[in-house]
Amino acid sequence: METKTLHFLSLIIISLISSSTSYSPTDNYLLNCGSATNTSLYNRVFVSDASRAGSFFLSADRSISLADQNPSPNSPALYHTARVFTTPSSYKFNIKKNGTHLVRFHFSPFAARGFNLSTAKFSVLVNGNVMLNDFSTQVVVLKEYIIKANDKMLEILLRPVGESGFGFISAIEVFSAPKDFIVDYGAKLVSADGIEEYQNLSLHVLETIHRINVGGSKLTAFNDTLWRTWIPDDDFLVLKTAAKRVATTHTPNYQSGGASPEIAPDNVYMTAQQMNKDNATLGARFNITWIFQWVRVMFDTWFACIL
Ligand SMILES: *[C@@H]1O[C@H](CO)[C@@H](O)[C@H](O)[C@H]1NC(C)=O
Ligand SMILES: *[C@@H]1O[C@H](CO)[C@@H](O)[C@H](O)[C@H]1NC(C)=O
Ligand SMILES: *[C@@H]1O[C@H](CO)[C@@H](O)[C@H](O)[C@H]1NC(C)=O
Ligand SMILES: *[C@@H]1O[C@H](CO)[C@@H](O)[C@H](O)[C@H]1NC(C)=O
Ligand SMILES: *[C@@H]1O[C@H](CO)[C@@H](O)[C@H](O)[C@H]1NC(C)=O
Ligand SMILES: *[C@@H]1O[C@H](CO)[C@@H](O)[C@H](O)[C@H]1NC(C)=O
Ligand SMILES: *[C@@H]1O[C@H](CO)[C@@H](O)[C@H](O)[C@H]1NC(C)=O
């Protein structure tokens, strides 16, 4: 009985420690769009976008709140509602702390009340930068952007394409990035002309395309310090047998000024691929190659690949 109580207590202490060390952003807006209620996902509360709680404003005279009458049983409650826009409309967020912010858009299409969200077509702008142009989706999509906020206000504008067009959104996240999330010095630009330092990366709008846990397994928002999803690198390896997974059981010893648990969670640092020298059938000279497909489509919008 006594040992049980002790175990219980130590569990509580461990969870108190881990929650007190977890990252808490200065600006932290999580919106459940088109819903009158708050809902949580991975222990984060997404508040109704119709509420006037907090410091955000929705300017949409003719927007419609839509609820999925037939949600698939394993989809989170956050994805059971959406706000539909038939005219250009915006969300405005008060920014308390200048600097790099993460902006995420969740789109989960369904059909209700004469709107088939799979047929929606719209553009999304953040502070005037086009993030999504003539966007449309038939599957659940999460888009993530990294943007420097220098004004007191951050504006997200949804603009339907065409006369009878409409747009929709299921959830929005706007939160302050941790310190040194994007470094301005030290990033390398590799081009045909050689390698040079690429300065002021944080001044550009970045989109996350792939977030890869090299040599490791898939990590979900549940495992990550910034509620990100990391996928394994296997599908990007040109020659899988050239690489060999390695892992450590030791958690990283973070030094101040260097990498931090917010840049990537422990599990990402604890796995790697090493050159598979053991494979005698490969020549003495070989390389590990990953191929990623990158497309640059928008003015002043760069794509980041975080390895
Ligand atoms: C939703 O959460 C916000 C912020 O925590 C709170 O002010 C509001 O009362 C909540 N609304 C409902 C309907 O529970
Ligand atoms: C919604 O539109 C998509 C794409 O056009 C189509 O495949 C789907 O059947 C439509 N759903 C309904 C309920 O009409
Ligand atoms: C944020 O940056 C803007 C423009 O650089 C400046 O006018 C404003 O005072 C800054 N706000 C804070 C809180 O530092
Ligand atoms: C980077 O930004 C700083 C301050 O905004 C500026 O002085 C410098 O010229 C910029 N460097 C490049 C390479 O653009
Ligand atoms: C990540 O979280 C999932 C539950 O969502 C769990 O099954 C898995 O073991 C976790 N992975 C790691 C590496 O912590
Ligand atoms: C070595 O490489 C060959 C050719 O790519 C592959 O068929 C074989 O499975 C590899 N062996 C090991 C132990 O990885
Ligand atoms: C790296 O390995 C790939 C696959 O074996 C090969 O196609 C490519 O030519 C190699 N590149 C270099 C620079 O050695």
Automatic annotation (TrEMBL):
Q: Which InterPro entries match?
A: ANXUR1/2-like (IPR045272), Malectin-like_Carb-bd_dom (IPR024788)
An example GO CC term for this entry is: membrane
Q: What is its main location?
A: membrane
Superkingdom in the source lineage: Eukaryota
Q: Which residues form the Malectin-like domain?
A: 31-290
Subcellular localization, per the record?
Membrane
Q: Which residues form the signal peptide?
A: 1-22
Q: Which keywords does the record carry? A: ATP-binding, Glycoprotein, Kinase, Membrane, Nucleotide-binding, Serine/threonine-protein kinase, Signal, Transferase, Transmembrane, Transmembrane helix
Sorted alphabetically, which Pfam families does this protein's record hold? Malectin_like
The record describes its membrane topology as:
Single-pass type I membrane protein
- GO molecular-function annotation terms? ATP binding; protein serine/threonine kinase activity; transmembrane receptor protein tyrosine kinase activity
Q: Does the keyword Cell inner membrane apply?
A: no
What is the designated name of this protein?
Answer: Malectin-like domain-containing protein
